[in-house]
Write a structure and sequence with these properties.
76% of the residues lie in helices and 0% in strands. With 500 residues, the chain is mostly helical. The protein has one domain: Sodium/glucose cotransporter (Up-down Bundle), CATH 1.20.1730. The termini are far apart.
Length: 500
C-alpha cells in the first residue's frame, strides 16, 4: 500500500507520536485515581463540566476514517463529503440538544441509569432491551474495527508500518488508558486530543495556503478544482442521500451511538447537557471545514493518485517539515483513539449493567467494586475483539463500506426504538413496535445489500424508513400505552415527580 512515493518518517516525527502516546497513558493513570465506582467508570459520576462534555461528544464522533475514507471522497468528489459527512451531524446534534440531551441526563438523575440501554427494560421489556443490546454491540465491533484499520492505513502510508502492527500499536495504547480510567480518562484525553488536533489542523491549513499563494487561496482554490468538486451533491451522494443522512445522524449522534449518550448523562444537570450538545453541534459545523480544506485542495498538490485514500498522507509528506508531520499524525490518531475509547466504555456499560445480569443470575448481586472490575474486563475484551476483526477489514469491503453501508444502514433500525421511545409523541409504541421495527429494518438491509445489490442511497435510506414506518404504524394500530410509560415520559420531559 505504501507505493505512492511517500518518504520515510523522520525521527522527530516518531518522537512527536511517541510523546502523544505517552501523554494519553499518563492521563489514563491519573484518571484511574478518580474512579471508585462503576458510575464513575461509566458516566464520570455525573460531574463532568458541560464544556468538557461538549468537546468530548465532538471528539468521540469521528475518527481517522476522516483522513482515509473521507479524504478519498474529497479527492474524487470534492465538498460533498462535508455536507453529508459532517454538516448532517451538526444539524442532527442541534436537533438533539432540544429533544434528547436533557432526557438522557434525567435518566441518570431521576432513575439512576448508568448505561444507555438500562432504561429500555422499563420502557419496553427485557427481550426488547436484549435484542438492541446484542445487535448494537455486535455492530460496534465492526465499526470500531474499521477505525483501527483506518489508523493502520495511515501508519502504512506515512512510514510503511505493516497494517497488523499499526492496529496493535494504537489498540494497545487505547486499551491501557481507557481500561484504567473509564469515562474520565476518555473525556480528559478527548480534550488533550482536541488541542493537539487543533494545532495539527492549523499547521496543515497554513502549509496548504502557502502552497496556494497565501490567504487568497481560501477563495481562489475553488475555481481551480476539477469539475463538480464544489457541488454539495453528486451522482453517488444525492440529495436524497444527504437528507436521509441528516435523519440517520440525528438518531446516531444523540444516543444511537451509545457512547455519545454517556456525554449527556455525565453532565451535572439537564441544562448543562443541552449546552454541551450545542457546543458539539457548533464544532461539527465549523471545525471539519478547517480539517478538510487540505483534502479539498489535494487534487492540485498530489494529482493522479492510484489510491485516493492516501491523499492526505501524501500531502502531509509533501508539504510539511520533520516534526510537523508527527504532529499531524498524532492529530489523526487522536480522532480514532477518542472514538474507540468512548465506544469501549459504552459497550462495557451495556455488557455489565444490561446483558450480563440477564445471562448470569449472580451478576445481579454484584457489588460496586465487582461491577467496576467487570466493566474493565468488558472494556479490555471489546477492544481486543475489535482489533482482531480489524485485521480482516480488507475482506469486509474496506473502511468506507463498513462505515457507510454497514453502520449508517444498521444504526437506524437500532436507534429508532431507543431514541423515539424517550419522546412523548410515541407513548403508544411498546415492546412489540420496538422489536418488529428493529427486525424489519435489519431484514430490509439484508435483502437490499446482499440480495438485490441496491445502490448506496437505497441501502442507507430504506432500512431506517422501514423501521420508522413499522414503529409508528404499530403504535397507532395496536397501542401498548401504559400508566408506567406515561409516568416515565413525564419525568423525562421534566415533570417534578413520578406519580405514585
Amino acid at each position: 500500500m505504501n507505493d505512492e512515493g511517500v518518504g520515510p518518517v523522520h525521527a522527530l516525527d516518531w518522537a512527536m507520536v511517541c510523546g502523544y502516546f505517552g501523554l494519553m497513558v499518563l492521563i489514563g493513570w491519573w484518571s484511574h485515581r478518580r474512579v471508585k465506582t462503576d458510575a464513575d467508570f461509566f458516566i464520570a459520576g455525573g460531574r463532568m463540566p458541560w464544556w468538557l462534555a461538549g468537546i468530548s461528544h465532538h471528539m468521540s464522533g469521528y475518527s481517522a476514517v476522516m483522513f482515509v475514507a473521507y479524504a478519498g471522497v474529497a479527492y474524487t468528489d470534492g465538498v460533498t463529503v462535508y455536507f453529508w459527512g459532517f454538516a448532517s451531524i451538526g444539524i442532527g446534534v442541534a436537533i438533539g440538544a432540544w429533544l434528547f440531551a436533557a432526557r438522557w441526563n434525567r435518566l441518570r438523575t431521576r432513575f439512576g441509569v448508568a448505561s444507555p440501554l438500562e432504561f429500555l427494560a422499563r420502557r419496553y421489556n427485557v427481550p426488547a432491551q436484549q435484542v438492541l443490546a446484542w445487535s448494537g454491540s455486535s455492530l460496534k465491533v465492526f465499526d470500531v474495527a474499521s477505525k483501527w484499520f483506518a489508523v493502520a492505513v495511515l501508519l502504512n502510508s506515512f512510514a510503511g508500518v505493516p497494517l497488523l502492527w499499526g492496529i496493535v500499536i494504537t489498540g494497545t495504547v487505547t486499551l491501557l488508558y481507557c481500561t484504567a480510567g473509564g469515562l474520565w480518562a476518555d473525556a480528559l484525553t478527548d480534550f488533550g486530543q482536541f488541542v493537539i488536533q487543533a494545532a495539527a489542523g492549523i499547521v496543515m491549513i497554513w502549509a496548504v495556503l502557502d502552497g496556494l499563494g497565501g490567504i487568497s487561496g481560501l477563495w481562489t482554490l475553488w475555481d481551480r478544482l476539477p469539475a463538480g468538486h464544489t457541488s454539495p451533491v453528486t451522482g453517488d451522494y444525492t440529495t436524497v442521500f444527504l437528507l436521509v443522512y441528516v435523519l440517520v445522524k440525528t438518531l446516531e449522534y444523540n444516543g444511537g451511538m451509545w457512547n455519545l449518550a454517556q456525554r449527556y448523562m455525565a453532565a451535572p444537570g439537564a441544562g448543562e447537557a443541552r449546552r454541551g450538545a450545542l457546543l458539539s453541534s457548533a464544532l461539527y459545523l465549523v471545525w471539519p471545514l478547517v480539517l478538510m480544506f487540505p483534502m479539498f485542495a489535494a487534487p492540485l498538490f498530489v494529482p493522479g493518485l492510484e489510491d485516493p485514500t492516501t491523499s492526505y498522507a501524501a500531502m502531509t509528506q509533501a508539504l510539511l517539515p520533520p516534526g510537523m508531520i508527527g504532529l499531524v499524525l498524532a492529530g489523526m490518531f487522536s480522532h480514532t483513539m477518542a472514538m474507540v475509547a468512548s465506544d469501549a466504555n459504552a459497550i462495557s456499560a451495556v455488557i455489565t449493567r444490561d446483558m450480563l445480569p440477564v445471562l448470569w443470575r449472580r451478576a445481579r448481586r454484584f457489588t460496586e467494586h465487582q461491577r467496576l472490575r467487570t466493566g474493565r474486563i468488558a472494556t479490555f475484551s471489546f477492544i481486543v475483539l475489535s482489533m482482531l476483526v480489524a485485521t480482516q477489514a480488507q475482506h469486509l469491503g474496506g473502511v468506507l463500506s463498513i462505515v457507510v453501508s454497514w453502520v449508517a444502514a444498521l444504526m437506524g433500525p437500532i436507534s429508532v426504538p431507543l431514541l423515539l421511545g424517550m419522546l412523548p409523541w410515541f407513548r403508544r409504541c411498546g415492546a412489540r413496535a420496538a422489536i418488529v421495527s428493529w427486525a424489519g429494518g435489519l431484514v430490509t438491509y439484508g435483502v437490499l445489500y446482499y440480495g438485490l445489490d441496491a445502490d448506496q442511497t437505497a441501502t442507507v435510506a430504506t432500512p431506517i424508513l422501514v423501521s420508522l414506518v413499522l414503529y409508528i404504524g404499530l403504535g397507532l394500530a395496536a397501542s401498548e400505552r401504559t400508566e408506567q410509560i406515561d409516568e416515565m415520559l413525564e419525568v423525562l420531559d421534566g415533570e417534578p415527580a413520578i406519580r405514585s
